[in-house]
């Protein structure tokens, strides 16, 4: 399996799993770990509004995961999708995690996600470069 195919499938599965954790029924059970000290009632309007709003984020992650896995069949045609994921990991990932740290969220979990985003970015760029250097095989087009 070529590096870009493997990267797209691995990151795709990761996005499916992370996206699913924001789905209703799961997100509510994780509220305390995501926002330590959340002081609104778990069945109240604030908690419900937060989980409903973040459901959209979960859908975004899930859809990106589906597209990464589907596009991994023809990775030579998916470089724009890979660059999108890399850009989102840099901005929505690392940038937002740094913002969360500045707002007082738990540093350890934010640093763990910064490390994850950094790994996604670095391995994605490496896989793209490897794809560019690799000779085309039967069925692939430039």
From TrEMBL:
Bilayer-crossing regions: 53-71, 80-101, 107-128
Pfam families noted in UniProt: BphX
Keywords tagged on the record: Membrane, Transmembrane, Transmembrane helix
InterPro entries: BphX
Name this polypeptide is given: DUF4345 domain-containing protein
Source organism (scientific name): Aeromicrobium piscarium
């Amino acid at each position: 399996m070529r590096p870009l195919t493997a990267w797209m499938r691995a990151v795709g599965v990761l996005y499916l799993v992370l996206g699913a954790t924001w789905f209703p029924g799961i997100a509510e059970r994780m509220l305390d770990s995501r926002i330590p000290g959340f002081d609104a009632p778990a069945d109240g309007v604030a908690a419900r509004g937060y989980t409903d709003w973040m459901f959209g984020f979960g859908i975004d992650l899930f859809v990106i995961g589906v597209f990464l896995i589907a596009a991994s069949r023809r990775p030579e045609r998916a470089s724009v999708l890979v660059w999108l994921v890399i850009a989102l990991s840099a901005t929505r990932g690392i940038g937002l995690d740094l913002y969360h740290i500045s707002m007082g969220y738990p540093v350890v979990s934010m640093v763990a996600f910064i490390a994850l985003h950094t790994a996604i970015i670095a391995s994605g760029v490496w896989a793209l470069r490897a794809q560019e250097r690799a000779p085309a095989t039967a069925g692939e087009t430039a």
